[in-house]
Design goal:
The protein is mainly α and 74 residues long. It has a single domain, classed as F1F0 ATP synthase subunit C (F1FO ATP Synthase). Helix content is 91%, strand content 0%. It starts with a helix and ends with a helix.
């Protein structure tokens, strides 16, 4: 019964990785849409794009870390 709870919790924690994957796609889609509308402002927004990508990927990695901790540390 205890193992079942670990697996359910780890599976729920892994849903954060799904959100990260969708978030990265949305970030790049919004950047490309904005760059197509105003190409002269695209270079100024590139730093914001990379920062948003890094934060979104970090959230996915954190959710994987929580899942691993639930499986092996608890």
């Amino acid at each position: 019964m205890e193992d079942m709870g670990k697996y359910i919790g780890a599976g729920l924690a892994c849903l954060g990785m799904l959100g990260a994957a969708v978030g990265v796609g949305n970030i790049f889609a919004a950047f490309l849409q904005g760059a197509m509308r105003n190409p002269s402002a695209a270079q100024a927004q590139f730093g914001t794009l990379i920062f948003g990508f890094a934060v979104t990927e970090a959230l996915g990695i954190f959710s994987l870390l929580i899942a691993i901790l639930l499986l092996f540390a608890v």
